[in-house]
Amino acid sequence: METALKTDAMVINQVQLLLAEKRTSLAVMRTGIAVLALPLSVISLLIATSKYYDVAEVLHLASILGVFLVGLSVLGLYLITRSIIKMHAYDRHIHQLKMQNSALREFID
Q1: In 2-31, which positions are buried (b, 16+ CB within 10 angstroms) versus exposed (e)?
Q2: By CB count within 10 A, which of 8, 34, 59, 61 is most buried?
C-alpha cells in the first residue's frame, strides 16, 4: 500500500513538473507575441509620420531598420512556434501519464 502511495505521489509530481514547464512555454509565447508586436508598432509609427520625411533621403536607415524588424518578426514567430510545439508535447505526456495511472483520472479531465 505504501509503495502505491509513493508511486501516485511520484506521478503527481511529474504532472506538476510538466504543468510548470507548460506555464514556462506560455510565458515564452507571451514574449514572442510582444516581440512580434514591436515591428508592427514601429511600422505604424513610420507610416503615420511619413509626411515629415522623404523615403529616398533615409533609404539607408530604412533598409537597416527593415532588416532589424524582419529579424524581430522571425524571432517572435520562432518563439511562438516553439512554445506551441512544446505545449502540445507536454499535453501528450500528461495524457500518457493519465492513461497509465488511475489516480490521475479523477483529477485531470
Answers
A1: eeeeeeeeebbeebeebeeebeebeebbee
A2: 8
